[in-house]
Amino acid sequence: MADLDSSPHTAAFWTQADALLRKNLTYQKRNISANCRLISFPFVLCILLVITQTLVDNQLNKKSRKCGCQCIDTNGDGTCETVCGLQFSDLDQSPNCPIPSPLKWPPLLQVPAPQYRAVRSASDPFTDLPDESCRQTGNCPVTVFITGTNQTLGQSLAASMFSPPSPLNSTNSVLGSDSETRQDSFLDPAFFEDSLYNIQSQCTSNSTANVSVSLTVSQSPSFNFVKETVCVPSLSLWRNSTSEINDQIFRGYKKGNAERQYNEILGAYDFLNSNANTFNVSVWYNATNKDTVDGHYYLVRLPRAVNLVSNAYLQLFQGRMVLEFIKEMPKPATKQKLDIASLLGTLFFTWVVIQLFPVVLTALVYEKQEKLRIMMKMHGLGDGPYWMISYMYFLVISALYMFVFVAFGSLIGLKFFTLNDYSIQFVFYFLYINLQISLAFLASAFFSNIKTATVVGYICVFGTGLLGGFLFQNFVEDTSFPKGWIIFMELYPGFALYRGLYEFAEYSSSGTSMGTDGMKWGNLSASENGMRDVMIIMLLEWLALLFIAYYVDQVFSSGSGKNPKYLLQKFRKKRPSSFRKPSMGRQGSKVFVDMDKPDVIQESQFQLQFFPHSRFSLLSEESEYLSNSKFLDGMAYASNHGRPSREKVEQLLLEPTTSHSIVCDNLRKVYPGRDGNAEKLAVRGLSLAIPRGECFGMLGPNGAGKTSFISMMIGLTTPTTGTAYVEGLDIRTEMDWVYTSMGVCPQHDLLWETLTGREHLLFYGRLKNLRGAALKRAVEESLRSVNLFNGGVADKKAGKYSGGMKRRLSVAISLIGDPKVVYMDEPSTGLDPASRSNLWNVVKRAKQDRAIILTTHSMEEAEYLCDRLGIFVDGSLQCVGNPKELRGRYGGSYVFTMTTSVNDEHEVEQMVLRLSPSAERTYQMAGTQKFEMPKEEISIADVFQAVEVAKSRFPVYAWGLSDTTLEDVFIKVANSAQHFHTLT
């Protein structure tokens, strides 16, 4: 046989790629609105970020948040000059003021609020704390726990820490506050709120005192604060160990979360091994407000707690140390900034980029669900062109999407894009979109329903963002978390994307606050920068997933699939020179044949193994059935022809070349049982040979196995055993070559809703290697032949076609490009009589020099189009022959019909039996009866005479005598076969 590469119907790789590219471009042009909505998503998100950023900036730039100013007459001439500074600012304004010389503030302790101070509780084993009733009067003391190796020393030091000072002032008083601290203490909130306490060992009856604080701002006059303090008694309690202190602090912190009842202490000290020569101490301090909801670690009031114990020790052994003040570092004027894109960009931009995943996934699953991929493949589209064009198409769409995303973000001034090096962004996004496309190709192999794929895809989108923001980011920021586990988590592409965007956000945020550049190539070598690891992971994973996706697609998703070891086999480039006799599925050239007819035996390559007599002897009803059927005739035919009988298929398999386009060799399909149901035998060892130029019609009831047979022949499913040869090619191993010479009109129309009829035919014509004027001519002729040319129907979208128009287009697609083998599964379904007649003429002309297998339920269609017919029942072929032969073989009888009253039915039956003793009644209802009478037993004249006599005896409403039709043959064979399978 000729080399397949030289076949005029085999399109080259680039021809197939060009055809698919043209189709995709046309398809996307029709879906331009959906593509615009997809591309506009980054626009919408970036605009939302800009609006949010503007609102935040307006809040930060309000006058109430700028450094306070006041008009002062500095020269005494009556004119004032605006002076801005800390002395004119409040708590919200002070962080923005220039502080060349920071203020000196008295050191404070963080004192528990009255309602949170430690008291006795049922869960606390210690009873030395005050009773809970003190909270009602607001006079609970603040508690200090003490431990160490020397209890006497510890208690002495504790007693001296809160001794009453004299005189009372801000320097030697132990002051504290329960106000919340801030990120800076240029203006301490304690001096602006009514919560300043004076802690003493004992409080007198007059428990309030004023404390004056003089504050001086550089180049400005001093201003004084006079605050009234509330005396709070201290309570020093000894504990035997640090574990007791830890346990009690743990029990008291946020006791009863529902009611948020705290049981706080002021602090605790462990003097360890301190003595007169050694001072060694551990300090617990109150840090209730250190970690706030917004994640900022505010200043803690710790210096005074350390000073108290140090001062007590010095006072006991050496002297006294005075802590006069604390103050911040100097700073210039600042402007509050908050970059929303850097703050929220990691999460939002993860959603923006990863949303391309469900878009690609659903597009691939859509082609799979609608069987468009296999339809293209059945008309000659190879896997190589499909993968190349589809991959490049999604890559271009993704690249355009990312370009718009970065360009628009940069245009509106988002620091996330403008500060980071664009070349790093290009490499990162390029690697990720390739990885994402490869992952979508792999994932599509495991989905067959677009709704399921869409749900799973968007769960991945939002799940990745949320898990990245609330879980993965915490691991990245935790320096104690093993780096190896971080890299392992980044093997999931979504986390790799999140990590890269996180690094961009960190560098842009740092650059915004410090006025520096964002990420540069040199930063990738930093140990804390994970961008280099992410890029390496994405590159390697992209290549690995692309290979795995292609392999899985070949094995599981490409029609009938391939052997998992196919990559190890040598790629076959030529057609085989002869048929190869199969070694599997024949079981020693013997098979049980149901209802073996002579015509079926002649098609089969198998010798018969007869049923033993004992098998039928136990069936009382079966003997009558067998005697009335043609079963024994078939058995006799087999006996006369001997064992083994080698017929047409067996002979064809031994020939080096053949004129038969299709040869089926014991083709068998079994569907496994599911949900407790038994396995389904759909095709039972079918053997069939169809030459070129013949239209073979398959008739059979619903569920007979016709579509299962067609599905195996066109590569939708694989045979369980046996095989078939199409143009000398084995459908089990060489289906890719079979597709190049095949046309298919499937049972259900497989069309793109937004492509026109002309565009469908142009695409499939190019796949069949038609070009230029030949392509246009073939398309025009196809459209005219199926009556889709006039009235602009050819340029109308297929989605707007009626069912009949879609059917005609499917037939035209199956015939374009002159395929050698065509499968038509009920091609005239849904057509009106005129369109059906026109379609029949098209098929009749098309069968020249090609083999056509046609399934239909229309006997008229089968008789008009088919050269031979095969009646298929319960998975097996019951008879084969042309319509005339089948009528002669199975229709050797007349059908007599008579309608009378119900009371006269017996008279009619007796009349018929007198005419033909072998007559059988096939129908009886409401006085109407049908009988089959063998032709050799009656004459038409006798029937007419008998009817005339009957009319004189009883009323005859209607009667008729007809020859056997093909429909009668079909019903008879189908009923007989079904009855036989029921009995056996």
Give the topology.
Blueprint: H1 13-30, H2 32-60, E1 69-72, E2 81-84, E3 108-110, H3 134-137, E4 142-147, H4 151-161, E5 175-177, E6 196-200, E7 208-215, E8 223-238, H5 242-252, E9 267-270, E10 282-285, H6 303-317, H7 340-354, H8 356-369, H9 372-378, H10 383-411, H11 415-418, H12 422-444, H13 450-477, H14 483-489, H15 493-514, H16 531-557, E11 590-591, H17 598-603, E12 607-608, H18 614-617, H19 622-628, H20 631-641, H21 648-654, E13 660-671, E14 680-691, E15 695-699, H22 706-713, E16 721-726, E17 729-730, H23 735-738, E18 742-745, H24 757-767, H25 772-785, H26 803-815, E19 821-825, H27 833-846, E20 851-855, H28 859-865, E21 868-873, E22 876-881, H29 883-890, E23 893-899, H30 905-915, E24 920-925, E25 928-934, H31 940-953, E26 958-963, H32 966-983
Parallel strand pairs: 3-5, 4-8, 4-9, 6-8, 11-12, 15-20, 15-21, 18-19, 19-20
Antiparallel strand pairs: 1-2, 5-6, 7-8, 9-10, 13-14, 13-16, 16-17, 21-22, 23-25, 23-26, 24-25
Helix pairs in contact: 1-10, 1-24, 2-7, 2-10, 4-6, 7-13, 7-15, 8-12, 8-13, 10-12, 12-16, 13-15, 15-16, 24-25, 29-32, 30-31
